Amino acid sequence: MGAETIREWQEELDKNVRRLRNLQTLVTRPVEPRVGQTPREEIYKTNKSRLYRYASSRRYRTPVLFVPNLGISRPYIFDLLPGGSFIEHMTREGFDFYLLDWGVFGPEDNDLTVEHCVTKILPRMAQKVLQSSDARELSVLGYCMGAPMSASFIATHPEVPVKNYIDLAGPVDFSKVGVFGLWLKKEYFNVDRVVDTLGSIPADLVKAGFKLVKPTMDLSTSLNLWWNLWNDNYVEGFQALNRWANEYVAFPGEFFRQWVRDFYQENKLYRGELVMGGRPVRLENITCPVYVVGAKEDYIAPPACVRALIDLVGSRDKEYVELPGGHISLIAGRGAARHCWPKVSGWLARH
Amino acid sequence: METTPNQLFEMWRKQVEESAQVWTRLLSPERPAATPPDPTVFWRPVLDQGLQTWAKLFAQTPATPELLAQWKQFLDQWIEAWSKILGQTMGTEQFAKLMGQSFDQFLAALGPLRKAAEQQTEQALQALGLPSRSQVTAVAKQIVELEERLERLEDRIDAVLRRFDGKEPK
What we know:
The structure holds 2 protein chains of 2 kinds. By secondary structure, chain A is α/β, with parallel strands linked by helices. In chain A, 45% of the residues lie in helices and 19% in strands. In chain A, strand 8 (138-143), helix 4 (146-156) and strand 9 (162-168) form a beta-alpha-beta unit. In chain A, helix 3 crosses helix 4 (146-156) and helix 6 runs antiparallel to helix 10. In chain B, helix 1 (5-27) crosses helix 3. Chain B is built from 5 helices and no strands. The mean pLDDT of chain B is 78. Chain A binds chain B through residues 1, 5, 8-9, 11-12, 46-47, 106-109, 111, 120, 124, 127, 178-179, 182-183, 185, 187-190, 193-194, 197-198, 212-216, 219-220, 223, 227, 299, and chain B through 62-66, 68, 72, 75-76, 79-80, 82-83, 86-87, 90-91, 93, 96-97, 99-101, 103-104, 107, 110-111, 114, 133, 137, 140-141, 143-144, 147-148, 151, 155, 158.
C-alpha cells in the first residue's frame, strides 16, 4: 500500500470520526435550525394570512409580490438559510420583495375557497403591496399552486396594475399534471366524499400523498445524510431542509374540494370555464410580460402542464424556460442558486 | 454489470413470488418437515447481486477509499432504479383505481365511527358543562367573519379616502 493510499485511508477515517460525532449531536443534542433569517416586516394580516416585506436597497422600484402554495408546506423554504435563500437573493439584487404567507388554517377555515383567495385575499394583498411600496405597478411571482391562483387573479382583475407575471413550476393544463392528476381523477377519487367525511384535509394525509409519490425519497435522503454526515455545512442544511420537509400543512375542506374538482378533475382554468367572483377567468386577459419556468425533473408539476400558460396568455412579451431540477430544487438549494434565481431576477431586471 | 429497470423488475417479481410461497408454507398447518422454510430466501437475489458487484469492484480496483464512493454510487443507482419501477407501477390506471377503492373503503368505515365519536364527546363535554369542539369552531368562525366584515369596511373607507385625495377618479 503506497503512501498516497495510506493518506487517503487516514482522511476517510477522519471523516468517519466526524460522522460519528455529528450523528451523536443529531441524536442527543438536536438543535432547532434557524430558518427564515432575512430581515422582514409584517405589512398586513387577514385571518391566518400574512404579508411580509423584506428589507432591500430597492434598486428596482416595482415591488414583487410572491404568491406560493396554500397548504402542503410552509413558505420558509424560500428563505431557508443565509446563503441558500431565494428571498435573500432577490433582496440582495435590490427588489422590493413581498411574501404572501397563506398561513396554517384550522377547522374554522373549512369554508375558505379558492375563489375567496383569488377574489378577496389576493386583490387586498396586491393593494397593500402598492400602498406599502408607494409604487404604481407591481410584479407578481406565483410558485406551484400559487401560480394558477395568481394567474386567475390577474386575469379577473384588470384594474390591478400588474407589470410582470412569473409562473414558477405552476400547473396550468391539469390534463398533463402527472401522477397526482391520475390519482385525483374523478373515476378514482371522490373529492366530495373525502371533504364531507374529513372536513379538512389533515396534514398527515397530505404527507402520505407526497411520500407515496416518491417512496424512495426517505431512503436516499438517509443515505445522503450518512455519506455527508462529516460535513458540518451539509448537516446544518439537512437539519433545516428536514424540518421543512416534515412540516406539512392541512388544506381547508372547501378549498381542497374546489381545487381538486375545478383544476385537477375538470381542468377549468385551461379550458376557460372557470368563473370566480362572477367573472370568467380568461387567461388571454393577461397581457403583461410573462415569464414561465418549468423544471425538467418535476413530477408534481411536469414541464408540459406549466408550459401551457404560454399559449393561453394574451401577452406579446412571453418566454418559457425549462431549467434543471425538480419541483422544490427548482427554487431551493444550490442548483436553484445557479440556474433559477439569476434567471428570475435577470428577467425582472430587464422588464 | 449494467442493471436495467426490467431486470430489477423481474428480480422483484421473483422475490415477491418466492416470498409468497415461503409465507404460505410457514402459515400452512401441514408443513412438510423435510424442507424447513427459509423466510430470508426472497432477499437473496438482491444481496447476491450487491455482493457480486462489490466483489467485482474489489477485484478490479485497488483498496482505496474510492471504493466507498463507488459503493455509494451503486446504492444511488439501485435506489433510482427502484424509484423508477415504483413510479411506473404507481403511474398506472390500475394502481390509481386500487388506491381510490381502498381510500373509499377507509372513508366508508371512518365516517360512521367519526360521527359516533364526535357525538359522544359532544355529549360528555355538554354533561361536564364544557364547550365542545364544534362550539369553539363556531366561535372562531364568527371571529373570522367579523374580521372579514371589518376588512370590507376598511376597504370602503380606503376607497373614499383615495377619492378625497384625488388619487382615483370619481
